[in-house]
Task: inverse folding
């Protein structure tokens, strides 16, 4: 089969009028000679530009541990090395965001507006993590329904209405689910199996201590740095803790005890052949 | 003018609301325009955790309750969060206040008792067409409601720890105090609603309300304006038509006017 659309033939001009060949030049910028949007097909985001890689999170008996590295990648280039991808919303919620960084900044802005709006009319902070998650799901699903998605996958963590730990996933399609271990992007392939060894069910979670959970997440971040070529060894680690009713933020955490001896045996991949 | 709107509330039949720590009760007296007609709806459910009782222009109450229902659904849809009661009542208060200072419009001619339960506990608010909102332990609006308030003022200290059943008894007793001498509460003209921390908003009408009226009949039928030491004596006369002490308020002349 000839895969060139221009060789597929076209509707009869006598029936359908002349074919608008400009459709092939659809873009997200409106050309100057076009008067209305209807004259010209518009194009929405079809791929993310600068991206953040995985966010990983795991439940433990008193809360949630979440981590995301600080890199903004432009293709395979490390464009930014100081992106904070875990954001606070109110006092009881954190949101870890992977995917497009500009859409991350947009989400950051609307979530901040949400927190401000909420503190206005109640004169106290009433925004629970579960509310933030539901709101994000609505926003993301609404945008995908306009065929103009926000190119992100998020993990929302914090405290719910009952003050219990909360952790749930939502992505650019509006797909939402909860599980004792969650990860976005590459982490969904590499980190999830490791996380599930320790926290597969809520029964496992009851046995998992804060220290074990933090070490587990640190291990996963190290393995992601080993094997995910768009990741960084500098990351932010957050701990949601029910006993202290607090959300700890640890910035600029580094991967430790790495062994790179094997690297000298690697050949190919653009490295000089032995 | 707001003065006339506040007057319209007094023309409507009475509604009483009481809160305990975990429950809110609304009771109201329904009126029928004529013998063969149906009774005017007095209590409207907003959501599983909230409802209103009205006194005044019923159509205005419908407009406000429809608005509240929309707010409640939108809160559920967007945040999966039951609408906060204070937020709800202030949202209609803002609408009411707008009407008091814009040309061409008129204020809402209805007063509401908003009952609901949220993350901060059980709440009872009184809404007025002026846009004024106040939270109460016990409140009464509508015709001859001063009589009910007098009862509430005497008993309010017992409300906080009362059970749901006791709360309904108190509310019905207060409502009964608003009646004129020739009238009594029955299953047709009484409506009761309860909402609690672990209990959805429920309205009791017609046959369902009889169970609560039965409880009332087992209590003293004496008007509760009597001094405590006289209660013993008045209980003996329980089965006889209760004596109605002269109502000194200026409301008595319009006690049976219709809205």
Result:
């Amino acid at each position: 089969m000839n895969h060139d659309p221009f060789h597929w033939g076209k509707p009869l001009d006598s029936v359908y009028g002349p074919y608008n060949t400009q459709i092939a030049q659809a873009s997200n910028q409106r050309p100057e000679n076009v008067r209305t949007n209807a004259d010209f097909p518009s194009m929405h985001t079809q791929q993310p530009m600068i991206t953040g890689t995985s966010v990983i999170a795991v439940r433990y008996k008193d809360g949630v541990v979440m981590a995301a590295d600080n890199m903004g990648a432009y293709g395979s280039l490390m464009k930014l090395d100081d992106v904070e991808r875990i954001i606070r919303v109110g006092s009881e919620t954190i949101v870890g965001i992977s995917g497009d960084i500009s859409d991350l900044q947009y989400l950051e802005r609307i979530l901040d507006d949400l927190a401000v709006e909420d503190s206005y009319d109640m004169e106290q902070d009433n925004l629970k993590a579960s509310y933030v998650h539901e709101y994000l799901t609505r926003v993301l699903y609404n945008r995908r329904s306009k065929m103009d998605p926000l190119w992100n996958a998020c993990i929302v963590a914090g405290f719910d209405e009952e003050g219990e730990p909360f952790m749930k996933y939502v992505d650019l399609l509006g797909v939402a689910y909860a599980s004792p271990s969650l990860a976005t992007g590459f982490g969904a392939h590499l980190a999830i199996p490791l996380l599930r060894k320790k926290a597969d069910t809520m029964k496992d979670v009851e046995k998992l201590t804060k220290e074990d959970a933090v070490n587990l997440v640190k291990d996963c971040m190290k393995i992601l740095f080993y094997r995910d070529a768009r990741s960084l060894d500098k990351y932010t680690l957050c701990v949601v803790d029910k006993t202290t009713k607090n959300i700890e933020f640890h910035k600029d955490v580094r991967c430790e005890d790495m062994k790179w001896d094997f690297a000298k045996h690697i050949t190919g991949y653009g490295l000089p052949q032995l | 003018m707001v003065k006339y709107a506040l007057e319209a509330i007094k023309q409507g039949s009475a509604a009483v609301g009481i809160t305990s720590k975990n429950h809110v009760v609304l009771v109201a007296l329904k009126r029928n325009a004529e013998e063969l007609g149906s009774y005017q709806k007095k209590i409207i459910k907003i959501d599983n955790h909230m409802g209103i009782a009205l006194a005044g222009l019923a159509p205005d109450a419908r407009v406000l309750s429809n608005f509240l229902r929309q707010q409640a659904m939108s809160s559920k849809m967007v945040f999966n969060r039951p609408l906060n009661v204070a937020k709800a009542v202030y949202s209609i208060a803002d609408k009411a206040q707008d009407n008091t200072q814009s040309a061409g419009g008129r204020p809402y001619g209805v007063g509401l008792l908003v009952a609901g339960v949220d993350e901060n506990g059980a709440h009872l608010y009184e809404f007025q067409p002026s846009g004024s909102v106040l939270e109460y332990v016990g409140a009464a609006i509508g015709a001859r409601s001063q009589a009910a308030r007098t009862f509430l003022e005497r008993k309010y200290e017992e409300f906080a720890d009362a059970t749901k059943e006791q709360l309904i008894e108190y509310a019905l007793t207060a409502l009964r105090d608003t009646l004129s001498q020739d009238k009594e509460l029955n299953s047709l003209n009484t409506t009761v609603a309860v909402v609690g921390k672990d209990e959805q908003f429920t309205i009791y009408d017609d046959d369902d309300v009889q169970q609560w009226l039965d409880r009332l009949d087992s209590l003293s039928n004496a008007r509760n304006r009597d001094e405590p030491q006289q209660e013993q004596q008045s209980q003996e006369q329980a089965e006889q038509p209760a004596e109605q002490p002269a109502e000194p308020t200026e409301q008595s002349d319009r006690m049976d006017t219709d809205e």
Observations:
- Chain B touches chain A through ten residues (CB under 8 Å).
- The longest strand of chain B covers residues 110-118.
